[in-house]
Please model this.
Amino acid sequence: MESSKPLIALTPYHNLEKDEPYMRPAYLNAIRKAGGIPVILPLEPEEEDLVQLVSSFDGFLFTGGPDLHPFHFGEETHQHCHNVSIKRDRLELALLKLVMKAEKPVLGICRGIQLINICLGGDIYQDISSQLPEDFPIAHTQPFSFEIPSHTITVVPNTLLARLAEDSIIQVNSMHHQAIRKPAPGLAVTGYAPNHLAECVEMPDYPSFFLGVQWHPEYLWQKDPAARNIFAAFVKAAVKNPQ
Ligand SMILES: [Mn+2]
Model:
């Protein structure tokens, strides 16, 4: 019998030195384990082909990666902004708008949550540690393996994240030096790091699954039920005719 698993499109990573697309296997494994078929999108599709690409897939995962160019949220480049991928900015900003128009499931991870927020009119800290000084700075670029959680998230009750997390506080990993500052209109912040940094957004009015997380559940799902549930719910929402 023919497989009828949902096809999940992933935005590609971009090796800026070699100017080559690539992918981290952790994303592919997480989608596959959750029952989807992961497919890596081209880095530079023809613009006229984007609509066809959107209609060809059942769910869209916006992956981690470099900083977005600050011009996309109306700022000059901060001295602690890192490298950017003009090609990924172009692809993902155009893609997200079309995916949302088609009302298909969206999952944003790390760069993905920032992409979502900027695309919808919010902005970000270009560098947390220099723009948001704290008495006890949380290590958002954790000093140990991605598979080991490093800080907690306080989950806002009665949200999608609350249903997925099964607990009011969860432990996550952290590999980012930027973060959401002003959430975009229509987005609800539903998870906070210590010191109230926004690390999870949802869009309550969106007709399908819509979640952005600042951490990397693709490195946690083997041990962490919340990370597993995020991928399971995303892939399930992408099933065309759920039983
Ligand atoms: Mn963090």
Observations:
- The chain has a mean pLDDT of 96.
